[in-house]
Amino acid sequence: MQNFKLKLRCKFAAIWLGFLLFSMLTACNNPEGTGGDLTLTGQVIARKYNLTFTNIISEYPLPEERVYLIYGNDEIYSEDFRTDYQGRYRFENLQPGNYTLFAYARDSTGNEPSGLMPVFVQVKLEAGVPATEAPVLILPK
Fold first, then answer.
1. Could you report the per-residue pLDDT of 84-96, keeping only the tens digit for each?
2. Which of 55, 59, 77, 103 is spaced 20 to 30 Å from 47 by Cα?
3. Cβ 139 vs Cβ 104: under 8 Å
């Protein structure tokens, strides 16, 4: 009976150690999102067109524009940021991985009932690169 209890304890200890090791290994592989030390910055520029969207009238930094950030393959945004007076935004404390940024622009096709369409930019953050500058988001207005 004593031998049986000892074997049972050893099996339990082995299972527990296996679970602990698995937990430690998966905790080190954080997916995209917060909890890291990387920063993503960028700028939003408004591009003003004529009514038929055939000629550019002007371009300027877009203050107070909401920029949305999607982590990895998520389907909805996880964070948003309002641009400053120079149209700049900043997302901090991110993990390495793939991200999608987007903001809403005036629909030039006339197909969107809301009159707005999202403009997307893909960005990859890499470990060891503390700050990444995203491509400029140009929004037709």
1. 999 999 999 999 9
2. 77
3. yes
